[in-house]
Amino acid sequence: MSYSFNINPNNFLKINTIGYYNCDYTRFNMPNNPNFLNMLKNTYGNTDINELIKARDIVCNILQIDITDIINNSGISNWVIVCVPRARAFKNYQANQLMFREAVNNAVNKINGAINGLDYIIRTKDTYTTHLGNATKKGHFPWNTGPEPYPGITRDTCSIDEDKIKDQNIILIDDIYTNTVNIDEDCIQALYDKGAKNVLLYVIGYTV
User: Where does residue 7 rank: exposed (0-12), middle (13-18), buried (19+ CB within 10 A)?
Assistant: First the structure.
């Protein structure tokens, strides 16, 4: 079951947008927090593969239920599903660090009315990984030197297939939404700038 929320226009986003989320995100290891999302980030690339598969399958099951409901309640038959790309260039991640994306891919291929658009947005240039902020400042991630979020960062650092985005109804998927980061807002606006007809945001966790 998903819950709706409103994303207001700001410097990153020109149009009011509807978002959906599955559960609250509080803090890693807090009671009832969706810690499987942190596991799927696999920042160090050394998480046990069996644990990653379990987390991937949890996300896949959630997506199948929630995205199916959103599509069925929308009155629109076909939706293109795309992912907010991770902060670094796609080529700089190991396969075991892209298993949230794999979960989305697996779910989309099982949902009626969903078109797999995961390759329509690909990060080609590194940006700042915001959730590593404090650790980066302490010197733990010296490679985390890309630009921090700014209006237009998606357009400037991603390859976006305009021909496949134009005139489409799009559900943009991310793992966690935090309303002060603005990566999701900027990605929504990039899709509209490329001619998307409608854009909805869906996230598993909503930061409270």
Answer: buried
- Rounded to whole angstroms, the Cα distance separating 42 from 103 reads 14
Residues 6 or more apart from 9 whose CB is under 8 A from it?
15, 16
Domain count, the chain: 1
CB 155 within 8 A of CB 123: no
| Domain of residue 199, residue span | 3-207
Cα separation of 199 and 81, whole Å? Answer: 10
- Specify the CATH number for the domain of residue 146: 3.40.50
62: its two tokens? 């959630």
pTM above 0.90, yes or no: yes
Classify 94 as helix, strand or coil.
Answer: coil
Question: Per residue in 152-161, pLDDT tens?
Answer: 999 999 999 9
